[in-house]
Amino acid sequence: MGIDLRAGGRVKNKNRDAPESQNVYLRLLVKLYRFLARRTDSAFNGVVLKRLFMSRPNRPPMAISRVARYAKGREDKIIVLVGTVTDDVRLLEVPKLKVCALKFSDTVRARILKAGGECLTFDQLALRAPTGSNTVLLRGPKNAREAVKHFGAAGVPNSTTKPKVRSKGRKFERSRGRRASRGFKV
User: Fold this and answer.
1) pLDDT value, residue 1
2) Are 123 and 29 in contact (CB under 8 A)?
3) Integer Cα distance of 70 and 23 in angstroms
4) What are the C-alpha distances in Å from 44 to residues 41, 138, 157?
5) What is the pLDDT at residue 13?
6) With contact defined as beta carbons under 8 Å apart, do 165 and 155 qualify?
7) What is the per-residue DSSP string for 6-64?
8) Residue range 137-168, pLDDT digits in tens
9) Cα–Cα dist 154/38, whole Å
């Protein structure tokens, strides 16, 4: 038994064990949560650590309206989001929330504080809830990216894939295959 070089060598673990980013503040958080994941037997710290490693598309932002919806009935708990919390003008009244996130937009931070809530950082969370007790861990909508709408084959029957078009006008994607009067319509 040896390493099968013809088949591509050893089987390597492709999971991230550190963030790609060189951001010193993120790296300090990784140090902190690596320690907590090792020294506490709480799965929460392991999950937070894994999400701190993730790439930007895998840490999607979440609007305050969605955060408020998930926080309903859990007013005493801390909402945790490894990503950005953004503002939503459609939400007229922000409830009193305790939110911990990597980043807050300026407007949403002002609105949460005005409602009597709190915006926490992950180092503050580690002091308050080292094992993640009384927290609600959320994730943003990963497939809400514009790019995801273009995944798949556009123009085949029953496909809802958005075609990649230079412009949206009379001359673009409106001929054969798109109208019954121009040959056929899928």
Assistant:
1) 62
2) yes
3) 30
4) 9, 12, 44
5) 87
6) no
7) TTTSSPPP-S-SS-S---HHHHHHHHHHHHHHHHS--HHHHHHHHHHT--GGGS--EEH
8) 999 999 999 999 999 999 888 999 999 999 99
9) 47
Position 150 scores a pLDDT of 96
Residue 69, SS3? helix
Contact of 117 with 99, CB cutoff 8 Å: yes
Q: Are 81 and 52 in contact (CB under 8 A)?
A: no
Residue 6: the pLDDT is 82
**CA 95 to each of CA 17, 65, 67, 76: distance values in angstroms, whole numbers, following the listed order:** 37, 10, 10, 12
Low-confidence ranges of the chain (pLDDT < 70): 1
Residue owning tokens 């801390």: 78
Q: CA-CA distance, 101 to 111, in Å (whole number)? A: 15
Report whether 19 contacts 30 (CB < 8 A). Answer: yes
Token couple for 16: 């991230």
Structure tokens at 17: 């064990």
> In the chain, what is the straight-line distance between the N-terminal and C-terminal CA atoms, in Å?
55
Residue from 94, 119, 90, 124 nearest 104 by CA:
119
Distance CA 138, CA 61 (A): 11
